[in-house]
Amino acid sequence: MRAFWRVWDGVLDACGVVAAVLTVLLTVGVCADIILRTIAGGGLPWVFDLVEYGMLFITALMAAYVLRENRHVEVDLLISLVPAGLQRSMRVAGAGLCLLFSVVLAIAAAEAARRSWVDGSVIFRYVLIPEWLPFAAVALMFALLAVECARQLARRWNERRTAGMSRSDLF
User: Fold this and answer.
1) Residue 74 pLDDT exceeds 80
2) Are the C-beta atoms of 74 and 103 separated by less than 8 Å?
3) CA 88, 63, 167, 154 torsion-angle sign
4) DSSP E strands: which ranges in the chain?
5) pTM to 2 decimals?
6) Any bridge partners for residue 123, and if so which?
7) Any idea of the CA torsion for 79, 84, 85, 86, to the nearest 10 degrees?
């Protein structure tokens, strides 16, 4: 099982690298568009379509990575007010719900992508985007999240009961 998680961590690290590269490319594209509009009077009108979908792909690639690193947004006010044993139970329940919702949403998004693929649907913008592409990004995101949520659930299930809060997710 350790070998699987090593490979999994490599996949998440690769997702992080791809997302970082996309971020740089989108930033360069926006800067080039602004410079061209300022200097030449006309920019790159297709850049904003690519930025919009690029941000979706960055989010899709980074969601599970951020969860692995415990850098996601978590409101732990309620958890901090209950005894340690109940904190563990609440964290296990939260990870279980995250897993459940991630699986359901991955399946729904994959089905939407499949239907769009079969129908040949296209999003008409400056750049024609196959409609299945954004759905596939969402399916990928929730599939990655489901695996990471399963790992989080297993970790939290196996945590020893300790007094007080565990590591804060605040920074």
Assistant:
1) no
2) no
3) positive
4) 122-123, 129-130
5) 0.83
6) 129
7) -20
